[in-house]
Amino acid sequence: MSKFLRIEDDVTGQVCCAPLSGPLLGEAEASELAKVFKALADPVRLRLLNMIASAEGGEACVCDLNVAFDLSAPTISHHLKVLRQAGLIEGERRGTWVYYKVVPDAIARLSGLFAIPVFTRA
Amino acid sequence: MSKFLRIEDDVTGQVCCAPLSGPLLGEAEASELAKVFKALADPVRLRLLNMIASAEGGEACVCDLNVAFDLSAPTISHHLKVLRQAGLIEGERRGTWVYYKVVPDAIARLSGLFAIPVFTRA
DNA sequence: CTGCTGCTTCGATGAACGTCGAAGCAAGAC
DNA sequence: GTCTTGCTTCGACGTTCATCGAAGCAGCAG
User: Fold this and answer.
1) Nearest CA-CA partner of B58 in B6, B101, B98
2) Which residues contact A105 (CB under 8 A, 6 or more apart)?
3) Which residues from chain A sit within 8 angstroms of residue B37, using beta carbons?
4) Exposure of B112 in the CB half-sphere (CA atoms within 13 A)
5) Chain A residue with minimal CA distance to B28?
6) Does nucleic acid strand C have an atom less than 7 angstroms from the CB of A85?
7) pLDDT tens for each residue of A17-68
8) Which alpha helices (DSSP H) does chain B contain, by range?
9) B3 touches strand D (CB under 7 A)
10) What is the Cα–Cα distance from B120 to B111, expressed in whole angstroms?
């Protein structure tokens, strides 16, 4: 098919995680997953991720993120570190500024978790 | 009269389906969403949700959940309460036992969040 | 009624988290 | 070199969280 839109090929296909309604999670597996959700479990981090994901060019400068919140720079830096350590975003320094972008695979993985089959009563 | 286990502080009302790469989240919106992720940000709760979602008949008895973990009953009850208040599950007492099942709409809502993978400008 | 079982709530405690100011580090301008 | 700007790390402080034992409540069987 012709591709008008620059949306990349469906990443949702390469789902690695079974849906929540699937086979039972092991302890280690659940712990790893929990780390990702812990990173998402803060309003500031959610807005940061949202801003980065929806930024022009797919990446955002920390300088822009800083002024968007009524929080100190160390605090924003801390939240970015948490998102980074969860594998949700990655940063790169270019000259004076640091730019962050999302890691598409990480979002795709979460997508698979909530794939709809969540059981329907027979 | 009905002293069933209700969803006391349901939080899912405002949480809607716009993908993360979509329009910017407001503060209130992000806070509501964060509450749901906070409920998912624990390995025990993830496994509980997983067990309930994949249980025979779509619902699980607390008595079965209790023996599946090396934790005290109060702790399991606490985790179930957190999931309940996040609107992810709901419980019902039938005679001696209490059964929990997932709330499909809650999972569907999360599915929407990650539905559209973040584009990367090639 | 008395007991017993299943589940929840209460109260306390130790660990983890969000926030800040101060200090450190990197890159560029002078 | 020195100075300035952008971002991160460090150390501390108050809050929130996971966990437990004890106590409370609901339902059922004698």
Assistant:
1) B101
2) A11, A14
3) 37, 40-41, 46
4) 11
5) A43
6) no
7) 567 877 888 999 999 999 999 999 999 999 999 999 999 999 999 999 999 9
8) 27-40, 43-53, 62-67, 73-85, 104-113
9) yes
10) 20
Cβ <8 Å between A8 and B119: yes
Helices and strands per DSSP (H, E), number in chain A: 5, 3
Find chain B residues with C-beta within 8 A of A4's C-beta. none
Listed residue (A113, A25, A119) closest to B58, CA to CA? A119
How many whole angstroms separate alpha carbon A7 and alpha carbon A83? 24
E strands present in chain A: 59-61, 89-94, 97-102
pTM assigned to the model: 0.84
Rounded Cα gap, residues A94 and A84, in angstroms: 17
* Closest of A101, A74, A76 to residue A90, by C-alpha: A101
Q: What is the pLDDT of residues B47-92, one digit of tens each?
A: 999 999 999 999 999 999 999 999 999 999 999 999 999 999 999 9
